[in-house]
Amino acid sequence: MTDSAVLTAHASASSPSASTDAATLDAVAAAAAAAAPLVRASADADCAGWLRAVADALDANAAELVAIADEETHLGTVRLTGEVARTTEQLRLFATVVDDGAWREITVDHADASATPPRPEIRRMLTAVGPVAVYSASNFPFAFSVAGGDTASALAAGCPVIVKAHSGHPRLSVRTAEIVTDALTTAGAPDGIFALVVGREAGNALVQHPAIAAAGFTGSLSGGRALFDLASGRPDPIPFYGELGSINPVVITAAAIAARGGSLATGLAGSFTLGSGQFCTKPGVVFVPTGTAFADDLAAAVGPATTGRLLTDRIASAFPVGLAALAADDSVTIVVGAIDSDTDAPQPVVLRTDARAVATRPDTLLEECFGPVTLLVEYADEAELFAALGALGGSLTATLHSEPGEEVASLVERLSQVAGRVLFAGWPTGVAVTWSQHHGGPWPATTSLHTSVGASAIRRFLRPIAFQDAPDALLPAPLRDANLAAAPRRVDGTLLLAAG
Amino acid sequence: MTDSAVLTAHASASSPSASTDAATLDAVAAAAAAAAPLVRASADADCAGWLRAVADALDANAAELVAIADEETHLGTVRLTGEVARTTEQLRLFATVVDDGAWREITVDHADASATPPRPEIRRMLTAVGPVAVYSASNFPFAFSVAGGDTASALAAGCPVIVKAHSGHPRLSVRTAEIVTDALTTAGAPDGIFALVVGREAGNALVQHPAIAAAGFTGSLSGGRALFDLASGRPDPIPFYGELGSINPVVITAAAIAARGGSLATGLAGSFTLGSGQFCTKPGVVFVPTGTAFADDLAAAVGPATTGRLLTDRIASAFPVGLAALAADDSVTIVVGAIDSDTDAPQPVVLRTDARAVATRPDTLLEECFGPVTLLVEYADEAELFAALGALGGSLTATLHSEPGEEVASLVERLSQVAGRVLFAGWPTGVAVTWSQHHGGPWPATTSLHTSVGASAIRRFLRPIAFQDAPDALLPAPLRDANLAAAPRRVDGTLLLAAG
After folding, report:
1. Is A108 an 8 Å CB contact of chain B?
2. What percent of chain B stands above pLDDT 90?
């Protein structure tokens, strides 16, 4: 399949919302399947080069892309420009991960004729699982979209990628895909390594397509669950890595409020309104002691500001519905804002309830509400706090603001059980792109043990393969004697670093 | 929950098949949930010690266990004695894995105030996912049962384990569980770390129990798929690691037959009849060139020998049914044995078909048949061979017997796509217990990218957790400054070995 044929799979720029039909999806999937062994067997230097070429091309076209994105999402050029930089930084981090070689987890046990029974030689590594379906999110039109973390980590693993465009930014999706495809082609990547499909039906068909070996998703609980069920219900189930929803609890102790209540209020106000409250790491529920001035401080910090327009009509219309559902609980009062939020320019909203109510009605009060709202939960004592924390489901993050010397070990233990990242300073809406980052958590934060952010995201698209008593020339290149020392590896049980 | 209370969960030795009722299952699950944070936070030295204590206790009681197992499975004391040794070796390997520390994948990125935006400190590690359900297999009453690879790797990960006993060896299951529980208790492991439940209903309830965080399974495609669907269908889906079925293709070239056809026939005969053909790695389909004497050689190698009784009445009655289904295909002829196999002492069976038939009717001819049978598939040329190989589903293993200098790269590529372990000498029924081993493959060989055998089995029961800007004293012990150097780790992007 030629490059131009791949491009027909994504709707033309003049009609970016046209759905991909079944025949085109089949052709795209067949091209990905044909590319899979070539991409899998590519040299690390080539694969890393492709990732850097994509990053460079996106940077070179950032102004055009940001302009389209701002028209389609109203996120603003400052935020969007930063997001392009974050996205290309992420692509380059995965290039570094590929270069490093540890991702392949090369493991060699030499033959041992003296063992009972005699042991053969086995050489093992991780290898690409095959074509990956990626479902874009609306809230990060670059970092979690066409060239986002799922795409970057799947390409780094050596997998062709087929992206399902998000309907919230159709023109941006097509233009980004064109730039990615051109960059990959120019850099010498195999035809079929990348494509974009459009439309809900194509998305549903994609996760069920026999050529697809795994899927990555960022979006809503309902949409993600539907695709998860399709992936799991296949005759041959495939792994589905979804990020579905998170309320990101924050716990603030009395001592912390006494020491720095004002600055905590300012920090929280900035965090829950960031991106109009449309971050998956938005602090949605904040546990504070009763009898403090924190609610007043937060009200002052939020002030009369409005936030930007919400991303899509669907999110905009869902926001007041979600607010009303929370406010309908007898325990809830309004600290800041109004329930019938202006859908064109929603005002930040702060609600207040108490820990007893949360412990008894978690299904109502701990429901994620996408948009600029946070719920203060007042606790009278530690028993009330822990009872309410016991009702929490999984989240991407949990944040504790306490003071030195406080006895918080059991609190940290509890927060560690419900979240994938536990913060002790700052706010969860900042997600550094580093080796150590983890952006995942117990259901429904993510569907699996793995994550779409951070270096280990690559692992989701790798499977082990072992070769027993293979002639050197028939081994994949990374497992051959002459190449072993180039990467970190475990030999006869001992971990070794890359030479030189 | 006291140790004696845990023991009531597995039926008493006098009535080992009594099903576990719902109240008892709840109590066992609650005990596992209560134990989970203690087991998770245990020191590596303690956890490794528990594994070694279990291994020592099983070795000390091997004679009694083998006697029970031989009564229940008819596998013979030689094979069963070897399997106990393999099982305790596996437990000790996982103790070594725990000691090594690399499994925790400690990753630290220090804060960088000069970055844009400034980067916080993040420390990340893998940690236990929570209580694990383990479903025993019938064919390895030790190595894939109560104290088998799933149990060993889950305990090594720091997870409590609840085993669903296999109905094929009920007394052995109870006795093994008693020994494991006693050993764990004596070694100081937390109450609730281990329990056994009995009965299909309890097994179905177990994988759906809110306390269970992951499941491991070895068994049939139908049974595994049913449990996979229950695990995936939960309100909070959990990972289900199943090993479900494998036909383990073997390809033999004309040159290999010319060079060593006799010894290949002898090796194949030993492999497909091993354990009465009840290994998941049994070579079930063997591609050989047309016009050779290999079938005759194989017939001679098999000889008039009978194999032992099959493991369970269900397997025994299914074997002739499976044979008849294969033989019903017009292309199939009988080389050795009879279709109406004696279910008490089944005779080995060799069937023969051709590659064209396999390519056109894979659903009939590539169906796994548990028991001492293998199917020779004759190919006229490479085109026929590849067409038939293209119809293969996933397998645990694929074996190639060729001669030096033959052009087999594309054959190796094809076999690498369908199997998790590719062999170039010997036969797949030997599975060495080593760091490098991989016992998994594309569906239906296994449900996931991971495996129940080999050091990386531990990873299935671990989830990442990251701590951002945490005070040292509030970090889990392995992430504290004073302990970092004790394990392999990545710091600011650089991989480092354990000190000393």
Report:
1. yes
2. 84
Residue B327 distance to chain A (closest CA, Å)? 26
Which residue from A minimizes the CA distance to B494? A100
Q: Which of residues 368-407 of A touch B (CB under 8 A)?
A: 393-394, 404
Report whether B433 contacts A459 (CB < 8 A). no
Q: Of residues B72, B83, B159, B280, which has the active-site annotation?
A: B280
Among the listed residues B101, B226, B106, B85, the one whose alpha carbon sits nearest the alpha carbon of residue B164? B226
B215, B460 Cβ separation under 8 angstroms: no
- Which residue among A442, A455, A468 places its CB closest to the CB of B421? A468
CB contact under 8 A, B232 and A236: no
As its CATH architecture, domain A3-244+448-461 has 3-Layer(aba) Sandwich (3.40)
What span, in angstroms and rounded, lies between the C-alpha atoms of A250 and B194? 34
CB nearest A236 (choices: B233, B443, B455): B443
Contact predicate A190/A35, CB 8 Å: yes
Q: Residue B2: is its pLDDT beyond 70? A: no
Q: How much is the ipTM here?
A: 0.94
Pairing of strands A132-135, A161-164: parallel
Q: List the single best residue of B93, B208, B468, B469 to mutate versus A (max A Cβ within 10 A).
A: B468
Rounded (5°) CA angle B117-B122-B128? 145
Tell me how far apart the alpha carbons of residues B319 and B316 are, in angstroms, rounded to a whole number.
Answer: 5
Instruction: Specify the CATH number for A249-423; select among 3.40.50.2000, 3.40.50.11930, 3.40.50.11190, 3.40.309.10.
Output: 3.40.309.10
B469 touches chain A (CB under 8 A): yes
- How many other C-beta atoms lie within 10 A of the C-beta of residue B303? 9
Residue A409 contacts B where some CB pair is shorter than 8 Å: yes
Residue ranges matching CATH 3.40.605.10 in chain B: 3-244+448-461
pLDDT in tens, A16-46: 668 999 999 999 999 999 999 999 999 999 9
Does A110 contact chain B (CB < 8 Å)?
no
Pinpoint the residues of chain A covered by CATH 3.40.309.10.
249-423
For residue A3, the surrounding DSSP H or E stretch is helix A3-9
